[in-house]
Design a protein that fits this description.
By secondary structure, the chain is of the alpha+beta class. The protein has 16 helices and 21 strands. Strands 3, 4, 5, 6, 7 and 8 form a 6-stranded antiparallel β-sheet that branches. α8 runs parallel beside α9, α12 crosses α14 and α14 runs antiparallel to α15. The longest helix has 24 residues.
Length: about 475
Amino acid sequence: MRFLALLFVSLTALADDPADQMARELKKLVDVYSTLESENAEPVPPEIAFYQGAIPGMLRTLDPHSIFFDPGQYDQLKQMEKSEHKGFGTIVSVLPGRVIVLQAVQGSPSAKAGLAPGDEILAINGYVLARLEFEQLVQLLSEARQHEAQLDVRRPGNARLLRMMLTPEVMDSPSVDRAFMVAPGVGYLRVTSFDQGTGKLVKDTIEKLGGAKLKGLVMDLRDNPGGVAQAALETAALFLKPEQLIFSIRGRAQKTEEVRVPKEAEPYQFPVAILINGKTASASEIVTGALQDHDRASVFGQPSYGKGLVQNVYPLSSNTGVALTIAFYYTPSGRSIQHPLQGSTLEATAASMKGTYHTDSGREVHGGGGIEPDETVWPAQLDQLAMVLDASGSLTSFAGEYVRAHKIEENFDATPEVLDELKVFLSARQIQPGISDWLKDRQWIQSRVKQEIMTMGLGVAKGDEVEMQRDPIVRRAIEKITQH
């Protein structure tokens, strides 16, 4: 009996051995493929069975960000890491079936070719834009930036169709693309991504706005998909005290790592407001979470995306590779940035972090994925007249004609005379709003017309300044800052 008991224990230990269990599971996979190869009605190449079937199927049990790269995809990944971003230097308004030029950046291929604000692009490489669905139009514009493109252009007041050839060039797109004073003493800056050097660019931009003399700063991280964690560290360190925790990294096979503000940091002291939405992700969530947890910034907008994964790409045999999640990012209070992913192995880990956490001052903040704003503020909802004016491109078209007939100065305003001209323009295009609708939307129309004319006459950045003045999220952030 003693011998049988020992034998049973030995067999149980063998059955529980992870290496032995893996060998049995791998044998099942080989047996399935062997049967498939010999018995299936049609032959199945190994690269299809494994590269498109077994391996992706296994990774689908993890999370959407764990990906297998076959040889072609792995080569493409390596090329993307070395690739340069090219373009024509054109900022356009994209409407269903219509593309109207808002700005041709000075010295860009567009400006050299003669494109000007108000021009309408009718065709690209022979593809007539009016025949394309909106998604097709966006895809065509993206693809056209990679190669030489032939544009057919209609210029207001010119009956002759213009044909231009544009060759893409490497374009410098700074990650801080907007900065101006949004209220007396209050600066505004928009960070579109976190790249190498973003931290320094944020600091340099703040200094141009007034530096330590500012009464407050609105930092817009809406639609910011994130980027380099080091850039997030450098940006957060501009506002936090030396040695304060910015974020931590925890993973099963990785020792917990805490990232803190450098000892030599000299942070700004003015009040800060951060704007976020559902497309705010990754490194931008790290910055937002750190400043919120340390009560250094008020956060406005909508809940962020919730992408707090640390990933590595591992090269495999036969020129293949795999991107795997190896750890999670956590805010200083211990909140997991990663949103729970239903049906994946990450779901239980992220879900376990749900609950209430506390900032340095004891304020309650919620965990469980993403960053919850301190105050939820939604973008303004347009009524029927405003939607018609926007969707038809009428305001953009009017601005194009207006700019060609008038010189636009920095102090331009949409006066009652300008609005009277707009009414005549709209009437000629069968848009005749009722008096009550016009009066109800008059303030919005006045702001939008000013924005479009400033954009056409002085550049998109100037138009954005007008837009931010009526943005309800920006306005609420300014109110909070000026209460200090």
